[in-house]
């Protein structure tokens, strides 16, 4: 595809408006228009970003090559299936769908039609995360913290599918081993879903991951710590920064009945190319459509992420 990719955005709520803003900045794509079930909001967003508000999804699909879906989670499967059936490439916000079965159906439909189906794990495009894979080769222990104040706009899912799913995706991609055990606890604080959750994942290769998420805290913290045999990695998602700690030397001195111990370590700050992760995600999506890049977030990978997320929810809420 040599011409610009014609993009449409479905859903212009909290996350959707960011997608609209980024889509109109792309050099290899053109924002054709948007759709929102709330016609008044669609008109407002369209006027703000100088694009067209379409009256129906069908009308928008006819004019586009690819669709970005930022509608509520319960609509992801229906809209994505409609777009894929119409031979349109799809970037859908996480989680891909409400069930693993629905996710598998979408992945298979995309494969059958030779289409790009990308899931919006935007943290994969964080500059620090892109560098992480180069230095975190054999994790022994992974610890994540993702806490934030409550966002009243997100009511259809709990903290696991809203926030923790980013860390599940990153951890599975880093460890590259089967999850053999899942332990999880959580509780509802401000919504009808779990608002805080603590999870321990054990992998077949011996790695252990501890994931903590909260959307009822008064601070915003997004960090990932990785212990390896000869190094310790600290990643700050917000600042897109990585610190690499290595032990340099240690000495023990004995004398006059006492032991003096000195340990020295080296702290390296890894250079990170910082950019807007959402913009990076859009650019990657367009490159995949044009055949210039291989998808970084593949459908099969997201199915595994969703499977682990639902095992966690079963641990927290019990099987339904």
TrEMBL record:
Organism superkingdom: Bacteria
A UniProt-annotated Pfam family: GFO_IDH_MocA
Chain ranges of the GFO/IDH/MocA-like oxidoreductase domain: 155-220
Transmembrane segments: none
One GO MF term attached to the UniProt entry: nucleotide binding
Name the record gives this protein: Gfo/Idh/MocA family oxidoreductase
Domain Gfo/Idh/MocA-like oxidoreductase N-terminal: residue ranges: 6-121
Origin organism lineage: Bacteria, Pseudomonadati, Spirochaetota, Spirochaetia, Leptospirales
